[in-house]
């Protein structure tokens, strides 16, 4: 079912009615074949609504229906490509073929994105198949407002679309709208509660199942399966057992019964997401078991039903002593998990953050992704802008994710991250020989905000995430362009041009005014990682240090003299990162402690780079204000005002970053800025 | 009336039954003369309870009663000293004479404190009179739990004794116990709600009056008058007016009517405490009026009833730009208020924090106290340990307050702070010639904690505050000894010795492991000013900077080259502080920016002083753990355990302070610690 937005005040994101005009003006035949599921109904309803609005016509036919008299044929056929669709143009008719209604829905939106161009000259079949079979969004939404973390942990777009007033919302119309948006970009999995599972939220697995089913009913018609984050301590917390030990038969029985109940209520339930033995969450360590024992416990409960465990590899010592330079948080995931390769059941996916620390704007790629060929792996990205400006800053993350997914991490350089997590041939060497793949996951950035994402332009991140999860080789700037066309259909060309000006390189601009050269953090702990605080995490328990002194800065993670983290990489990366001469500038301070006068590949000293890039970046951000102001009247007023207000804040905040970071390094190094720009 | 503690779990502080044994074992005659007020009943009840418990006898007589057959005579007589009492010993009878029952109550407790020594050899009359006529405690208690500041702002002892569940408590027995404690040390005024007056709390002035009266009824029998903190915006917030402009007749009428209602309900109501145009609180600036206009508005409403306005001088720009080194928060109170000297009505007291910043462990004395001879002044201290370890650290503040009150600030060196705020002859030069004095105020440190103050030893701060407010010339270590004797009556002598070991110099020890040489702050903004964060306030809006760079540290507040703050002092202090050669070490960095190699009067360099004093102080704190452990079994178990637990935390926290501050300065200065102790 396709629901319209319940309130005219909710922004349609990239699916305004006008974006469907090229489709809606055509005569469309839909043939669902034998697929009688709810997604087919969505396809029909999308076409019905678009054609009704834009003067076209819908015919619902079958495989006997002629394509004559139609501009577009959407057809479920057994020869459609697995998980995808094929589009061709022949005899003036555009034909989309998919093996099931879900593929057809994705093909339908492919036509929407193409617009009139889908109805041009004849062309040969083009097949589109997602690289990653699971393309998930994780919601860090809480049912009860958490006293510190709020309704949505790391949420910057208002409340939760799922929960309010301590319960699952009665009115889930925003979820229905959201499901439509996700289905349109190929997302097929969603975990609806925070990985930090508090007491109330734990009960979704038991008392809350009817509510979870209501949510799943809204995602299902868009090809999206529902997952729950669960507490490893559930047998104790919910079941009244005295232990959650994976080896305990009562515990095993409890999980099996819990899974049985879930699937009795939601037959296509996706599975569990688990954060265990991480930042205080319970886990198998309490019982002397390891992560494989823990994950397999849950996997065996889900297996009879076809469910999957997404087990997070984000495990490290969060009570570190800042005095201790031998312990390295960056090493932790590899040290914990690499030895377990081959021990996880086949329905366990190990969910690995893209970098070894925590969603920084710049990190090296996690070496765990190269280290576990006999394990299903998923890479975890962060759409919500925890470390990238809280959706107050323009920071288009498509280019970051594109780099991550395309990074040739494995020893065979053709095995980039996307291929690793997609389980493409060559990666695996397991008894079964053809383990299913892992996938791509990310933390969502939506809330009950009018614009979904707080900053209206942050919608582009959600869009790009879905599109890149389907096709990691897509050009992120082209995806941005696609998003602009859909979101601002028919807009003055200046809108497109200005959005490119603001957004194309906005990630690099954000990086340029924040922590330099891959050193990370320098965010304010007191404001949830927003704004500058150069020493904010320097003397903390979190393992996130830059070690700046009057002579230099950076973390020595070399094998020769440092923590040895560089040695966790396969060649050539271990050598590349180990050697100051080959380590890329943007990761220099992640791998090396260098004097301020160290000369970068760019030819600048470290300290002058810090000075220059911060000042230059603020000049760039400042220029955006006028550029955006010139769009007044060319985009909807409310959206214009919201972006304008956030740009003002971005300028203010970026200026703080610039001045604090420059001043910090001047006070420490004593080196004047060669350009003479103000310093304090 | 004297109430017993309602719960055996509430610690009796310095009034355990045993502390009253020397009195209670005697035959006591009480003669209240013509004073038929509630305080007289308290005197009688105190004696009745003590004698009943300890085998003595009470006779309630009149001025015809013979002193024969009594050990102690407590008598209200017209010739008693104003506000005080006289004690003598003659013919084996101890006689206390006071002009009213309140003085007699204070005399009674003087006998309690003296114990058996009050019944020794005959001696001539000794008169005790309080130096400050108003000796107040301010409670920063909220009715509604504030989302950031909690039930008690800067409270470290549990919830409020006044409020719970969004209303004034039904059961106010803790307030009655508290009133008895306050009366016993001579406190005579209490403001029962936070100076940051939020919406619910504002209504105490109107809808809440019946509840305020219930509280006042409990303080009155102990000689304590009740005050309210009020919002300057009350006419708008409570009265529905469109303005709170002091010049507006409707506003004036509103305040007059409000005061009339208060006094109709509570005839001995003390008055208002006001934080206006400070840290976001409303005030007269919004209407183009100044603080005198604002204070006088309220004063005129109170004047017909004998009430007083305590108007806080804590006014500064709390949206400062850290880049701006010309603005100096330290200057603010003087700049705002000194020009207004002589403009305040006679029932206005200007309440001035002892230092120019904010209750730091070490600040120079506020120059405002020397600058307003035609204004009634009160000095404000902080018993609650906002900046001195949150009542997790042993930090006996008596010596700090003793220094403050005894500081010879005015040009006539005999005019110390205590004399200034007491309006003693020589200070004033006003038309009326005999303005009443200001007083001494402080923020209370009690809550609904079993031990009143979280850390049991923090009770000594409350005790010493009251005693010093009565007699600023008292020796703080003697007061501590007095407190020990009362609180641990009959204890093994090792208790007394150990408490002196821990507490006598604990303020200096705390100073020695925290921010050095008067520079202040370096506390963690993210933990409410607890624990170290050297740069925590360095790039903030709060005007609290140390300006450390690789070469040196400190704030240049000289007239010659700095902010000119030193020039706000009368001679000789302006010259003393201005000159590096005469500025005392402990305030060096408050007044001067110096290189790390600057040699202190102590002979050490600044940086070596930082290294040494932090390390030495932690060694001291660490030694306390064993010293306290040796008292196991010699003090009540619960109290022993509570102190032991807090000492462990103090060692942990002090160690953090030591290591972070030492490391910070090593990283900045590059100067090694000459002693070779560990640095990171």
TrEMBL record, chains A, B:
Residues 453-677 form the Glycosyl hydrolase family 67 C-terminal domain. InterPro entries: A-glucoronidase_C_sf (IPR037054), GH (IPR017853), Glyco_hydro_67_C (IPR011099), Glyco_hydro_67_cat (IPR011100). Residues 125-452 form the Glycosyl hydrolase family 67 catalytic domain. Coiled coil: none annotated. This is Alpha-glucuronidase. It comes from Cellulomonas avistercoris.
